[in-house]
Design brief:
The complex is a heterodimer of chains A (261) and B (271). With 261 residues, chain A is an all-alpha fold. Chain A contains eleven helices and no strands. Chain A has helices at residues 2-32, 49-56, 58-91, 94-109, 112-125, 132-157, 160-168, 173-202, 205-210, 217-227, 231-260. Classes of the chains: A mainly alpha (261), B mainly alpha (271).
Chain lengths: 261, 271
């Protein structure tokens, strides 16, 4: 019994150390975003001043607008394409579905930097100016597989006879889609959309290579970080961290609850 | 209209925005600035200076992968155990950073490592000499492990969690020592997860650019940094493409090699 307790203690210590390694830098950063002093070396009092400065910065507010616009548009487009894609693939013969499946894994197995660079080359070659719209197209490309892979399992769980029954009873195929299939797979669509939105908000590498004129928040963090550490960036990073954390926990809770049901 | 046609916008989009752009990388890699065919970009990057950068990237990515495996395997093993309280919340806590922007995490690391950063002020407070960390290989390596560790834990955890626990109990009942249970039963069964994890760590590690730039202020120069420079500041897309292409081929080859270890690709994926 004693050795059992020792082993539990050792396991707990190991996991605590790993958690400390993962979270101490983030916690320090969040703490410093409230530090009145510019210096990282001393705590001179609590302030919300860096946050106030953040909201007064035109550059950051502009980047926030770009980030949200890109995330909203890219999510909307990828939800439509991805959901229809999943429905189509589900009805396909195995050979075709396999080809499409491989294609869906391509952006996941290509390193981000190569994906970004390859899209940049295509836009440059076709003389599409690198800005918000090229960023949106790039985001749709990496967002859509997440929607597809969230919707697919819901389609597999669905009773295949429901759709056929609706058609037999004289339902128009388009109506059968909206009245029978969509309500069944809706939880998958919402999870996919949340995931796509998070990925979009979070992206740096692909945005960096596919947009010139418009910068998202992650691009601002990168150029500021290259100049050195600045407390307003701690405030910005803290806010981004919290938003992404909340979105992820929402995704996790949804899929967790679904797995139980 | 047949239902399979619903997938056509998706198929079209994926071909146009993933497969076609890769062809452009090949096109630019084999042409010069005027668009004429050349292999000059490749002879240029075959010079020792470029190969050294490539070697450094592969070496650091390899070290990073080994460290992630050494830290990540026990972590995944303990998390999958049955005697842990709040295991589910712990799993979420360890995996959440994986989905967080790596720039924010690297930025947080910078705060700790800087010459007048948090670690140095702590050292000074207890009367120890300051350390110069930014710009060292150790700082870049720590930043890489910090960023990629969850990618190692997740697939190994997934495989271990699915493992039939009665096999371990059977081994114990038949008199197998705890150490031998791990080496003879758990390890062999978790190979698919390890293969997945190694792929998921090595690939982003070998192509990273921002981590090395921020944590070494340019002192440690990796392939990713080189690609960034050729595309962004030097505007030489042809040489940049040839480096990207070599990189991509290297990664495809190493994934192919890893697949040989785990032919049915049964490791836990991202989702």
């Amino acid at each position: 019994m004693n050795s059992h307790r020792t082993s539990r203690f050792l396991k707990g210590t190991w996991l605590a150390l790993v958690l400390a390694f993962l979270y101490i830098p983030i916690i320090v950063m969040i703490a410093l975003s409230f530090n009145a002093s510019v210096s990282r070396a001393e705590w001179t009092g609590f302030t919300l001043g860096w946050y106030a400065k953040l909201f007064q910065s035109r550059q950051i507010m502009e980047a926030l607008k770009v980030t949200l616009e890109v995330a909203v548009v890219a999510t909307a487009v990828s939800v439509v394409i991805g959901t229809l894609g999943a429905i189509g693939m589900h009805a396909m013969n195995a050979g075709m579905a396999n080809v499409l499946n491989t294609l869906s894994y391509l952006p996941m197995t290509t390193p981000d930097i190569v994906t970004g660079v390859s899209l940049m080359l295509m836009f440059v070659f076709t003389r599409v100016p690198l800005g918000k719209w090229t960023m949106i197209m790039a985001h749709v490309t990496f967002d859509t597989p997440y929607v597809l892979f969230s919707v697919m399992p819901k389609l597999r769980q669905m009773n295949p006879n429901l759709y056929e029954a609706a058609l037999d009873l004289g339902c128009h195929p388009a109506k059968a889609l909206t009245k029978v299939i969509l309500p069944e797979i809706n939880p998958g669509i919402v999870s996919g959309a949340l995931l796509a939105f998070t990925m979009s908000l979070d992206d740096f590498v692909i945005s960096y290579f596919t947009s010139n004129t418009d910068q998202n928040l992650a691009m601002i963090v990168y150029s500021a970080a290259r100049r050195g550490v600045e407390p307003t960036m701690y405030a910005l990073s803290t806010l981004m961290f919290i938003v992404i954390m909340v979105l992820l926990l929402a995704v996790n809770r949804r899929s967790g609850l679904e797995n139980m049901g | 209209m047949k239902r399979s046609w619903y997938a056509s916008p998706y198929a079209l989009w994926m071909v146009l925005f993933t497969a076609v752009p890769l062809l452009f990388v090949c096109y630019y890699a084999f042409t010069d600035a005027s668009g004429a065919f050349t292999v000059g970009n490749f002879t240029k990057i075959a010079q020792p200076m470029y190969l050294l950068v490539l070697w450094d990237s592969v070496r650091l990515a390899f070290l990073c992968t080994v460290l992630c495996l050494l830290i990540g395997y026990p972590t995944a093993y303990f998390l999958s155990g049955r005697d842990l309280n709040h295991a589910q919340s712990l799993v979420v806590l360890i995996l959440v950073p994986m989905w967080m922007n790596f720039l924010l995490r690297t930025y947080a690391m910078m705060t700790l490592f800087e010459d007048n950063g948090v670690i140095n002020s702590l050292l000074e407070a207890v009367g120890l000499p300051r350390l110069h960390m930014i710009g060292t290989e150790g700082a870049v390596l720590t930043g890489m492990v910090y960023n990629f560790l969850p990618f190692m834990v997740l697939p190994i955890y997934t495989v271990l969690k699915k493992m039939d626990y009665s096999i371990i109990e059977a081994a114990e009942d038949l008199g197998c020592s705890p150490l031998r249970v791990v080496t003879r039963v758990v390890l062999p069964m978790s190979v698919p997860g390890v293969v997945s994890g190694v792929t998921m760590v090595f690939m982003p590690a070998v192509t990273t650019f921002a981590i090395s730039r921020l944590l070494s202020s340019g002192m440690i120069y990796l392939v990713g940094d080189m690609i960034e420079d050729y595309f962004i500041s030097m505007n030489n897309r042809n040489v940049g493409s040839s480096i990207s292409l070599v990189m991509l081929v290297l990664i495809i080859l190493s994934i192919g090699l890893l697949r040989k270890v785990d032919p049915d690709n049964s490791g836990g994926g991202l989702w």
